[in-house]
Amino acid sequence: MTNSIASRIADFLSNFPPFSLLEKNQLDLIASEIKVMYFEQGQTIFARDESVHDYFYIVQKGAVDLQKMNDNQEPETIDKCDEGDVFGLRPLFAKENYQINAITDEESVIYAIPLNVFKPYAISNPHVGNFLMESFASNTRNPYSNEHKGKLISDEEDISFKKEALFELQPIPIVKKMVTVSPDTSIQKSAILMSNRRVGSVIVVEDQKPVGIVTDVDFRELVATGKLPIQNSISEVMNSPVICYSKNLTIAQAQLTMMKHNINHICITKDGTPNTKVKGIVSEHDIIVSQGNNPAVLMKAINRASSTKKLKRIRNKIMILLNGYLKSNIPLTHISNIIFELNDATIKRTIKRCIEKMDTPLPAKFAWMSLGSQGRKEQLLHTDQDNALIFEDVPEEKLEETRAYFLKLATKVTKRLNIIGYEFCPAEMLARNPKYCLSESEWKEQFSQWVTTSGNDEILLCQIFFDFDISYGEVKLTNSISDHIFDILKGNRNFLNRLAAQALRNPSPLGFFRQFLVEQDGERKDLFDIKKRGIMPLTDAARLLILEHRVKNISNTSERFEKLAQLEPNNKEIYQACAYSSRALIKFRTKQGLKHKDNGRFINLEDLSKEDKIKLKRCFKTIKEIQEFIKVRFETTYYL
After folding, report:
1. Element (H, E) at 37
2. Which residue numbers delimit the CBS domain (predicted)?
3. Which residues contact 212 (CB under 8 A, 6 or more apart)?
């Protein structure tokens, strides 16, 4: 008779390594010997210096904190185990007492796996053995640690390189539809084939293996000059042997090879030698074309662009660059910096061109403010444009005339940004809106009103406008606004408490039984809103806490948390966890957006792997922790 409990346990284990590496019969046998344990929140599973148990453990439901003692002999959480995480295995193999504490962070169901049942498979199965060796070598599963931030994103902070070098490390584009001929094909016929196919080279093959290559340069120097008649065979003009590489050739390797051998074509074969079948060809021209995705080249192209259509084409290349960086697992910090600079340059170029098209010169100094994700340097995809405009104070009789000028300018700018790919804000949070095209004095009065009124709408507007970055114009104007904001916030604890309540309006996105909270109705029914339920709670928390410390000129969410970790060493762990989770969720949304060719905001959970769901849950656990932290600090006990 089938043991239904063991079957359910085996089904659960099959989703997680190293159990997923076992044969079904092996897994069934292990599952039949597993002990199911229930723990209340705060219970100890094992403690430091305790003799090792006969079991190791996997979290079936709930969460477990792994803690070590810090320099002050106080427990410090070094890892958080969630659904599917294995812990307590290393001491069993190392034959040592436990070096850490394992304490449940919430009600948890834990499977205890007998070592004597599992160990034979770990020894006999090389895949399981390799997994364990890698796990022991890393000695941690903590997604917040410097060594293992790559759980959801790769974000090693010690990676350093020039922006331009990223381009050189990308794989080179390979042309697979090349022209091939046999050695006895005539020069004339080969040239006709090249002309018809509009290519610059022909590969000479025998048994599909490359024996020579002829380029248009060879035709020009050897045939067009009359040195050889066109009736001769192509073998008389071909270059041999052929320089070959495999398909993993990088742009840097291709450039160096062409320089070294004084050639402008490289043949791609199955194993990178002339002894295997031709798979494609790479030319110097291909490298030049591919440089369109080099950030340095894109920046130059943006600054030279003479039309909105050209800027739109460059914007499309930026998206290709972004996709390539993500696939190469480049750290998000570096990706964000590069994409922000390219986006910012696009906005600057658009504004500059629109100013040149205005009928009259600027009537006053002004500054263009980017709000929202671009203001926080977090805009990677084609999301809404949120912006505002501030102009210097002018005499009262000139005020409306000056405003009309800048409204006309803003209308031109926002229209062109929309063409480039930045959608209009549905709430009309745009510089072309008279509400957000104000003089310096009007903006100061506006912020004072928002802060003193502190209604829900005013709090929401403050949240949006507190995250701004100057994209064009007079920086003194935006600095003046920043100074004013911090002046009116000084000692205003009531406003911060209201801001804290607003920051809690989207609770942790895990509901009962740790399931994702999805949209309940409308066209997005059953989809998960990663912006509203994941990214924004962290954004709101970072803004609130950095304002409390009166820190200026840091608008990026992860940078705010990193600064907070410096300012509050006692809370360093939670702030670093928030910084990681912020980057992780933004990167996850970006990948989803590129995959589905949208803004990546709404996700069908059915499309996600079990691994992705678990990694996301880890980030959402951080949201819960920081929101509990805010409740206590700001004595906020209700949600708006």
Report:
1. strand 35-39
2. 174-230, 238-297
3. 183, 203, 204, 234, 235, 238, 239, 240, 241, 242
**If we measure between CA atoms, which residue out of 65, 229, 254, 88 comes closest to residue 175?**
254
Sheet with 437-439, edge to edge strand ranges:
437-439, 387-391, 366-370, 469-473
Q: Which amino acid is at 53?
A: H
Helices (H), 68-186: 90-94, 115-124, 126-138, 163-168
For residues 166 and 252, the answer to whether their CB atoms sit within 8 Å is no
Mean pLDDT of 559-567: 92
CA dist., res. 122 & res. 116, Å (int): 10
User: pLDDT tens digit string along 494-536?
Assistant: 888 888 988 888 887 765 445 666 655 666 667 888 888 899 9
Q: Per residue in 437-457, is it b (16+ CB within 10 Å) or e — as a string? A: bbbbeebbebbeebbeebeee
- Which H/E stretch holds residue 7? helix 4-13
3-class DSSP state of 164 = helix
Pick the most confident of 92-96, 195-199, 272-276, 444-448: 444-448
Residue 25's contacts (CB-CB under 8 Å, 6 or more residues apart) are none
Q: Tokens 């004095």 correspond to what residue? A: 441
